Amino acid sequence: MRQDIRITDQAFDPELELAGFRASLSEAGALVSFTGLVRPAGKDGDVSILSLQHYPGMTERGIADAVVKAAERWPLEAALVIHRVGDMTPHDPIVLVATASAHRRAAFEAADFLMDFLKSRALFWKSETGAEGRQWIEPRDEDYADAARWDDS
Amino acid sequence: MRQDIRITDQAFDPELELAGFRASLSEAGALVSFTGLVRPAGKDGDVSILSLQHYPGMTERGIADAVVKAAERWPLEAALVIHRVGDMTPHDPIVLVATASAHRRAAFEAADFLMDFLKSRALFWKSETGAEGRQWIEPRDEDYADAARWDDS
Amino acid sequence: MAQLLFFGRLGDLAGGTERALGLSEPHTIADLIGILGACDDLLGSALAEPRVRYAINGAIVDADALVEDEDELAFLPPVSGG
Amino acid sequence: MAQLLFFGRLGDLAGGTERALGLSEPHTIADLIGILGACDDLLGSALAEPRVRYAINGAIVDADALVEDEDELAFLPPVSGG
User: Fold this and answer.
1) Contact A139/D8, CB-based, under 8 Å?
2) Does the keyword Repeat apply (chains A, B) (predicted)?
3) Chain D window 29-48: which residues touch A at a Cβ cutoff of 8 Å?
4) What is the pLDDT of residue C80?
5) CB-based contact (8 Å) between A36 and chain B?
6) Which of A149, B24, B52, C22 could be cross-linked to B85 through a Cys-Cys bond (beta carbons 3.0 to 4.6 Å apart)?
7) What's the average model confidence in pLDDT over C12-33?
């Protein structure tokens, strides 16, 4: 399986990346993508800046391990993970995950699995800055529950 | 919820459509897309042409009903369905489904649901033309099983 | 004239996706399949297969539904999705 | 010098994401938290919270792991994903 994992502090263009990903495919009939966008409404009213911090090296290795697990579990032709760090404003793309497989079920489940990993286990720390100042965010219980779906099955 | 449903006999550009879809969003934090591509390997060896037939009017109404069901079930900001008909060759995009919601679970499940509908219940008839001539295709048992997942829950 | 539409492999058997049929009085779909089958066994039995559904003017109906002149009757074999 | 890294809200408490600490001999992470806590109660108790994980040179370890001079010790509070 081909894989492409990138963490960047620069804005990226999800559709440009997806076009390149699709052009790279030779066998797949199914391509699933997830794009995460900075939402305008935060917990304490409007968010002006969302900031993501990572641990260079260790964060990438954790994502690479999750991609390996996905490839062991589903027959993927290729997987792409791009994750933004640093300061972002509403509507900015934060994360892009794309998976390609012969059939759609594998592509859907692998993308879902990778997003659950990124949301609850990858080494990212998020803060939101709004009218009330900066606030660090922790995962929602929902995120832990989503990730736990893959643990024993 | 905004919806955009199109059946076309012209080639379309999935990433261009996705860029437009993303630009239309105001609240969503999660965008899931599925792109179906003509696979080079068919049942009887290589496929040179895949052809899709639909029942104009009735096919569109069936898809519109499925989109309404998805919107009743998941809090979606927008949904996009583009389906190609006519003759296609390997690697051509056949179908694009995109869903956008505040959170990722709704976007994933709604896209998955719509694809299951399109694969097993929408009024499309598919034939593959290869070295052995034209052959009409019926859904795999897997497609019926996938669609049945949504029936009672 | 009633318009008959044959989708998927039924179009191959019918020798085309559309056929016009003048109906002086309403007939059930089952009757029409019998008439078509009298001229063409293979087509008649394919149209009567249990997995084939019928639609009159875009609405799914049973084989005992009446087709009138000016109606559009579609024969829908199992679909095979995108 | 050992490099200490404080992620997320721990960086706010530590007054920065990095701090260098000369270690003439190896110390357990628990001991180092005690030393840091002696100067700064709030930081000490935040670092000792059960949900905070520790990594030495990029590998997750327990609080009784030994940190040597030249090691990189990271304090990892609960992550908050993409």
Assistant:
1) no
2) no
3) none
4) 84
5) yes
6) B52
7) 95
Assess B25–A contact: CB distance below 8 Å, yes or no.
Answer: yes
Q: What is the model's pTM? A: 0.92
Residue B60: predicted pLDDT: 97
Closest alpha carbon to C32 in C53, C52, C50, C48: C48
* DSSP assignments along chain B, one per residue: -EEEEEEESS---HHHHHHHHHHT-SS-SEEEEEEEE--SEETTEEEEEEEEEE-TTHHHHHHHHHHHHHHHHS-EEEEEEEEE-EEE-TT-EEEEEEEEESSHHHHHHHHHHHHHHHHHTSSEEEEEEETTEEEEE---HHHHHHHHTTS--
Mark yes or no for CB contact B36/A16 under 8 Å. Answer: no
Q: Which residues of D touch A145 (CB under 8 A)?
A: none
Residues D33-42, mean pLDDT to the nearest whole number: 94
Closest residue in D to A55 (Cα–Cα): D7
Lowest mean pLDDT among A60-64, B47-51, D3-7: B47-51
User: Using one digit for the tens of pLDDT, what is the confidence trace for B13-22?
Assistant: 999 999 999 9
| C43 has a pLDDT exceeding 90 | yes
- Coil vs helix vs strand at D62: coil
Q: Do the Cβ atoms of D80 and A124 come within 8 Å?
A: yes
Q: Do chains D and A touch (3 or more CB pairs under 8 A)?
A: yes
Q: For residues C14 and C43, is the Cβ–Cβ distance under 8 A?
A: yes
